[in-house]
């Protein structure tokens, strides 16, 4: 692991993963990196001695990783293991956003928040190339669902669309208690879905 100075990051400091310089920091941040450099591995943001058995809530770290992936336009990667998130939602509202795991059944997300684990709000314009793949997402009793793309209340038409989204190798499990959804999808064009082995309580409304 090593650090790279991002002169325009502005991301909230989260030591030891994100460190603001001591002198005249401005938007400068030292960002801990992995050896690959082409993606953002969530483990970079986890504390020393982290666990991957789903027993510890890493909401703050995951949201920080998501914010940095968005700022750096890199894929966000969840490795094999079980990961807990009790608050907040991951943002996919930017072009080329990729959130991926090692595979459904290998990477498991236990989402216990009150919204959606992945929440793509109404886009400001046309957002191209969003991809979500390779994970199992279990929704807790208070969750609204696993993945939301678009806003059902948005008037159809205009230039507010997710274009060319890809969903593959996903297992999405809603909650029987809350009736939460695997997918809540609107405002999509030319969408590809492959290898979705098990989606329970799948769609809030059709594409």
Structural class: mainly beta
Rounded average pLDDT: 80
Into which percentage range does the β-strand content fall? 35-45%
For the biggest sheet, the summary is: 10 strands, parallel
**Stretches with pLDDT under 50, minimum 5 residues:** 200-207
Question: Which sequence of SSEs, written as H and E, runs from N to C?
Answer: EEEEEHEEEEEEEEEEEEEEE
Number of strands: 20
Helix share, percent? under 10%
Tell me the quaternary state: single chain
> Can you tell me the overall shape?
globular
Count of helical regions:
1
Beginning-to-end CA distance, first to last residue: 42 Å
Account of the protein in words:
- The chain is mainly β and 207 residues long.
- Helix content is 7%, strand content 41%.
- The protein is built from 1 helix and 20 strands.
- The protein has one helix spanning 59-72, and strands at residues 2-6, 18-19, 29-33, 40-41, 53-57, 76-78, 81-85, 90-91, 98-101, 107-111, 116-120, 126-128, 131-139, 145-149, 161-163, 166-173, 181-185, 188-189, 192-194, 198-200.
- Strands 4, 5, 6, 7, 9, 10, 13, 16, 19 and 20 form a 10-stranded parallel sheet that branches. The protein has a 4-stranded parallel sheet with strand order 8-11-14-17.
- The protein is globular.
């Amino acid at each position: 692991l090593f650090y790279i100075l991002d002169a325009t990051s502005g991301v909230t400091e989260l030591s030891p993963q994100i460190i603001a310089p001591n002198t005249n920091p401005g938007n400068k941040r030292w960002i801990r990196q992995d050896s690959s450099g082409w993606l953002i591995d969530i483990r970079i943001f986890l504390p020393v001695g982290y666990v991957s058995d789903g027993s510890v809530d890493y909401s703050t770290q995951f949201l920080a990783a998501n914010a940095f992936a968005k700022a750096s336009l890199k894929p966000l990667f969840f490795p094999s293991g079980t990961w807990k998130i009790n608050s907040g939602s991951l943002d996919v509202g930017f072009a080329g956003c990729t959130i991926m795991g090692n595979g459904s059944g290998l990477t498991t997300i236990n989402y216990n928040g009150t919204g959606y684990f992945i929440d793509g709000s109404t886009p400001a314009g046309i957002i191209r190339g969003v991809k979500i793949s390779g994970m199992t997402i279990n929704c807790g009793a208070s969750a609204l669902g696993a993945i939301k793309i678009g806003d059902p209340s948005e008037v159809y038409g205009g230039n507010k669309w997710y274009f060319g989204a890809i969903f593959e190798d996903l297992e999405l499990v809603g909650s029987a208690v809350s009736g939460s959804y695997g997918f809540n999808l609107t405002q999509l064009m030319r969408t590809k879905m492959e290898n979705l082995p098990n989606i329970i309580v799948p769609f809030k409304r059709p594409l």
